[in-house]
């Protein structure tokens, strides 16, 4: 007991010495689970450091959630990822006494100074955590993350980014912005979200950066919580929950920073599109395991391809072994990146059910019927839920071709339209603009 307390004290003193020795430096970090063998878990602690700082990330305390802390010497790997930041990482293994749920955390005393949306940030500790489940009935490969491209934002631009991740098991991931912490269940002081928002379904984050004085490169701090979920016999179980913490540095940039628009979630489709806007020349990187370009290319990286403004890419969806999957897209231009996640589901009923799990909306698909189906273009919609407010008809590539408000949802609606033969998707919404149902519609001659 005395030896363990001495090690904790030494680790604490090392972090205090580092804190008082020089610059504050932590630009972000997260904990990921690399491997689980029985009850032995290998963790990777990843941090982003200011490249100019003489203080190195890694002098904090790693707690395993069972009363133990790391006391072994670690090998720290460090590499430059930009002119501004270095990536620092070390791995540690720990054996737990029994299966169960554990919360592993890492805390270091010196969060970056001068953060705009945290009070006196230099006096606040930096804290990250992962809660995970060890259960012999849930064999699991935990999510792997890439947050390095989230660290820069363009002045007066729109920060449109996505945490890019890979889950080998195809588990559902739910995203949310949360208040950064300085310790276990201890939020940092005076935090505000600065107008940022996140789509919990795709993990796409939007933030109107606003204009800042020339020569001033302010910092903002954000934290993303990622919940890993799996369905088992009709019930959803949380397998892990990770909080990633990162600074965003606002840099001087042309208003022609790269912008991506297109279909970011799609179900039962044959293709989808992506449009690159507001940039004269850039490169595109695609990591979509279920696509090929319509020219037949299946390359996962298009970094050597020069893309000009208003370029539109069409992607052909190929059969996937998973019922749903995530893909990632980035556009690079003059050292700045914008990124998007794409969510794909093989059928629209599952798509709606999964989205409702994420958003907390109770589905009513079983209470909404479309008949006849197939149809020659004249069909009826019958709603028994009493929640239907309006519906949209879209093509499989995501283009809306019709929308109509519902005046009396308790009676059948007759739709008479000049729809071309083919397959369409009808989306049903309630009065709060929540998706409550999806039906596939086949139009024949």
UniProtKB/TrEMBL annotation:
Instruction: State what protein this is by name.
Output: T9SS type A sorting domain-containing protein
Q: Which NCBIfam families match?
A: Por_Secre_tail
Species the sequence originates in? Marinoscillum luteum
User: InterPro entries per the record?
Assistant: Secre_tail
Which superkingdom is the protein from?
Bacteria
